[in-house]
Amino acid sequence: MPGDRAMYIDVAEGDQDWREIYRLCIGFVNPRPIALVSTTSQQGLTNLAPFSFYNMVSAHPPIVMFCPGLTRDATKKDTLVNVKATGEFVIATVTEAIAEPMVRCAANLPHGRSEFEFSGLTPVTATRVRPPLVRESPVNMECTLRQVVSFGEQPGAGSAVFGDIVALHIADWILDEDGQVDARKLRTVGRLGGSGYCTVTEPYAMHIPKPG
Ligand SMILES: Cc1cc2nc3c(=O)[nH]c(=O)nc-3n(C[C@H](O)[C@H](O)[C@H](O)COP(=O)(O)O)c2cc1C
Question: Which domain does 99 fall in, by range?
Answer without folding.
Answer: 11-197
